[in-house]
């Protein structure tokens, strides 16, 4: 909320790219709204999903370390098997 829409749009695109590059082609990434996303994983166990999540978190941390931005990227997640 403290930065303009262009900054927010760039951040959302960057986050989508990070997530999309770490999930399989048969998994599906959706933007729910704002800064909320849903990933539907097919044929994965919860342990697999948690490993993917750790890779996503590491990528966000690398972005924070590499960028000289006035903000930090952070994320939380929840998982539900179906």
Automatic annotation (TrEMBL):
Domain of life, per lineage: Bacteria
NCBIfam families: GGDEF
Database matches in PROSITE patterns: GGDEF (PS50887)
Key words, A-Z: Nucleotidyltransferase, Transferase
Lineage: Bacteria, Bacillati, Bacillota, Bacilli, Bacillales
Keyword Metal-binding: no
Keyword Transferase appears in the UniProt entry: yes
Protein name per UniProt: Diguanylate cyclase
Occurrences of domain GGDEF (ranges): 1-82
Classification via Pfam families: GGDEF (PF00990)
EC number annotated for this UniProt entry: 2.7.7.65
GO molecular function, one term: diguanylate cyclase activity
């Amino acid at each position: 909320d403290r930065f303009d829409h262009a900054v927010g749009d760039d951040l959302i695109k960057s986050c989508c790219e990070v997530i999309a590059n770490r999930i399989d082609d048969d998994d599906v990434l959706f933007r729910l709204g704002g800064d909320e996303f849903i990933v539907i994983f097919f044929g994965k166990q919860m342990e697999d999903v948690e490993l993917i999540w750790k890779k996503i978190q590491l990528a966000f941390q690398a972005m924070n370390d590499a960028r000289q931005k006035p903000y930090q990227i952070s994320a939380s997640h929840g998982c539900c098997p179906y």
